[in-house]
């Protein structure tokens, strides 16, 4: 979905040998009817990331569920792609290409995605905004060019303030008309574009996990890059242990133990970034207020049952101050009083915030919400 950008796993299932991807050792053919923990992974089935699935079941059932998951990931990737079109399908790129021209009839899943994105725009006071595609596209182009230059030993360039401010004039939900009854979307300004990178993978992961639940998965976990969604309890009754990436190296900085169905989504600054001419690092997460990449944290992880919510809110909190982020969490709790939601912020020690629940390790200061007290293992 993102151009030539395979993103490494930011949140990993520590029970799957750390963050390594690949197929687990296959049982012998004579043992295929035996219930075991199976795992497999793919790197070319959507969203330019490693897709990993594990389930405790028989091999035949596991293979069927894994293939179904990959098929669905490919479908959602194509629907939400803003860079490529596909035969017989109107997708996000089709909507953007027809901005200022005509409404586009789309799959109901796109309508659902956009409506959910609007809900998080409202919840966050405009901080989560998929309508700033014009700004994000500028940064995407500079970042891709910068990464190429960095690989050649050169520093990348930065867009001008004037370029960003001009693009920002063409943003906002006022330009987006959604007709749910007729399943159409129309962008009235030809220079406005939608970028659903902050929600698409989480939305897809949640929908696919729900589909797997309908197929009978009871003890499994689905991992798409920084999005992990557990399904039910672990077969042996122990908690799921989810590792959170060390921003400065390989492996996990900490692990979180949670039981039952839960989503863990991390937004981080250490995968898709480049070094610019001023010597600073610029990541892919753009603050809609400043129009520049956010710099407060190395990562923010959201833990809540719904993967789509976790995706939106991890992106949102990454751009907000610690205090503002906690206010958004309280807004979410008020709107969903029966739903658990927790957060983890990882930052440099010199950017430490005033948190009742915190930990220091190596170069990092880690703040977390009260509900995670006692659930974190420090690596």
TrEMBL record:
Cofactor note text: Magnesium. Can also use manganese.
Q: Which residues take part in binding Mg(2+)?
A: 198, 311, 315
Q: Which residues form the signal peptide?
A: 1-31
- According to its UniProt record, the EC number is 2.7.1.180
The answer on whether this UniProt entry bears the keyword Iron reads no
Please name the GO terms that the record assigns under molecular function.
metal ion binding; transferase activity
Q: What is its main location?
A: membrane
Its cofactor is: Mg(2+); Mn(2+)
Q: Where in the cell is it found?
A: Cell inner membrane
> What is the catalytic activity of this protein?
L-threonyl-[protein] + FAD = FMN-L-threonyl-[protein] + AMP + H(+)
Q: What class of enzyme is it?
A: transferase
Physiological role: Flavin transferase that catalyzes the transfer of the FMN moiety of FAD and its covalent binding to the hydroxyl group of a threonine residue in a target flavoprotein.
**Name used for this protein in its record:** FAD:protein FMN transferase
